[in-house]
Amino acid sequence: MICQEIDISKIMVKFDNEEEVSDDYRMDELARSIQQYGLLNPILVKTRKDGRYDLLAGKRRLLACKMLGWEKIPAIIRDDLKEEEARAISLTENLQRAEPAPIIIARNLKKLYDQYHDVKKLAEILVLDSEIIEKYLALLNLRPEFQEWLTNRLFPTFTDTLALLGQKVSSPDEQKKVWEYILGFNPLLQMELIEEYVNDPKNIGNLCDDMIIRNFNIQYCASLEDCGHLPGTYKRLFVDLLELARFKKNFDLILADWIRQMEKSK
Q1: How far apart are CA 117 and CA 64, in angstroms?
Q2: How many other C-beta atoms can be found within 10 angstroms of the C-beta atom of residue 102?
Q3: How far apart are CA 200 and CA 207, in angstroms?
Q4: Residue 238, H or E segment
Q5: Beta-bridge mates of residue 49
Q6: H or E stretch including 221?
Q7: Cα-flanking dihedrals φ and ψ of residue 168, to 5°?
Q8: CA nearest to 20, candidates 153, 131, 129, 118
């Protein structure tokens, strides 16, 4: 393993992992930091047969140095790595970046999975739990707009829910239908409803109604006023009671009474 300065013009991005490098503000910030303090963490490369270098880790650092007009960059040269080890390091470095979008992680994992076709083998190489890898790969089974949400970091707390939806529900239209029903619940109840839906797909409405009755509590509702499954005629009443309940100690009793009213009115 050697660390030395190499020509930036000779560095090639071989594995082309997807990285979020289009954020101009963050790139400018990184470039300013490098300009002020220097490149504290060298990039990682492997020498090619033609004398150039494959970039294994440090794509954003490389781009920032290019922005600064550098012609050479400090690099750790790892010619000892096998092809699969080099690819794994390249992917792992991208996964460990600060807060990568879930769908970016999923797409990069898929590239490596396509090489091995074995989740357990991939888990060993990346030192990740197999279930985590399966969760991310399942995101690629989602309908396009759901994947776009993950790219844009919408619904960040619902990544596990969407992954389970991708694992359990194959039809894009069914995914949309289920999501519209469960959107108002918190992630734990959403995942429970998805599992119940798989066993009883024609009864999603009743499943949600039963979930409301069993768990109608401020601790279990993710979005009170925008709850998609609440009967519209009772939504305003619920919001009013919620405001009242904020000043009452018997919060659960108030909600229980509201539920009884709702049941009598059906």
Answers
A1: 35
A2: 21
A3: 9
A4: helix 232-245
A5: none
A6: none
A7: -95, -25
A8: 153
* Residue whose C-alpha is closest to residue 139's, from 162, 114, 170, 155: 162
Q: Which CATH class is domain 1-81?
A: alpha beta
DSSP H helices, 75-220, are 83-95, 102-116, 119-126, 130-138, 144-151, 159-168, 172-182, 187-199, 204-215
- One-letter amino acid at 65 equals C
pTM for the model stands at 0.60
The distance between the two most distant Cα atoms of the chain, rounded to a whole number of Å, is: 80
Question: Cα Rg for the chain, rounded, in angstroms?
Answer: 25
- Interval 9-68: pLDDT, tens: 999 986 555 555 445 557 888 888 898 878 888 988 999 989 999 998 888 899 999 999
Domain boundaries, the chain: 1-81
Say how far apart CA 10 and CA 51 lie, in whole Å: 8
Nearest to 212 by CA among 263, 264, 160, 158: 263
